[in-house]
Amino acid sequence: MPLSASTPRPATRAASRPSVSRLVGTALLVPLALGLVACQKEAGSGAGSPATAAATPLPTVAAPAGKSWAETIVITPEGGYRMGNPDAAIKVIEYGSLTCSHCGEFSEKGAATIRDQWVASGRLSYEFRHFVRDGLDLTMGLLTRCGGPETTLALTDQVFANQKAIFDGLKGRETALNAAMAAAPDQRFQAIAQAAGLSEFFAARGISADQAKACLTKTDLAQQMAQQTTEQGDKLQIEGTPTFLINGEKIGTATWEEFKTRIEGLGVR
């Protein structure tokens, strides 16, 4: 969902589903491209036609006293981070990657509307499930979790908002990155973060060096994230990111415009 820099993005292609061993082991970490990673078979290849606008909007649902739905965030059994009313009439799940350009573009156009209008109304809940695709993606995913559930989606937003700048910063660091990716498992993600300048990026957003170090040595969490990606990707046949589920139905819509039309057709304003 999160906001991404307003810059042109390269053409993209379908993403294969990585295995756990390739994600956590050295093999997949080495061939990291220094550019926005391809992530979607074809933008706008949605399943079926988007719904037209519904005649009657769904009723709003007030958040509990002293709270807002946009600040109500929990970890789901599937490992996602859900924001909003748990009993919302419309439940959206996004499988997204932090190194996916289409995910960044979707976030750039739609994050504020989803969070501040749809989720805030209590009509819709939004869940982000991290579909890990490469070593840098996994490293950033560990760091977004450092501050707890209440900050994970905000930090994810920040990664998407600065996606192009992060990749631009990798230029000229290939040697250091390759060395980091070949490090021992308990040192690998910390080394990647240091080589990619991620430690400074997250420090500027409230994650201290000690916090980051502790998060980046959680190889069990990295293994879990990779396992969830593999198992859920196989089960749902996820071929690219972002992939959305709306009330359990998988759709292939890759553009914000088509997605917005579909959601509005369900009565969400």
TrEMBL record:
Residue intervals of the Thioredoxin-like fold domain: 79-264
InterPro entries, alphabetized: Thioredoxin-like_fold, Thioredoxin-like_sf
Taxonomic superkingdom: Bacteria
Signal peptide bounds: none
Identification of the protein by name: Thioredoxin domain-containing protein
Source organism of this protein record: Novosphingobium piscinae
Taxonomic path: Bacteria, Pseudomonadati, Pseudomonadota, Alphaproteobacteria, Sphingomonadales
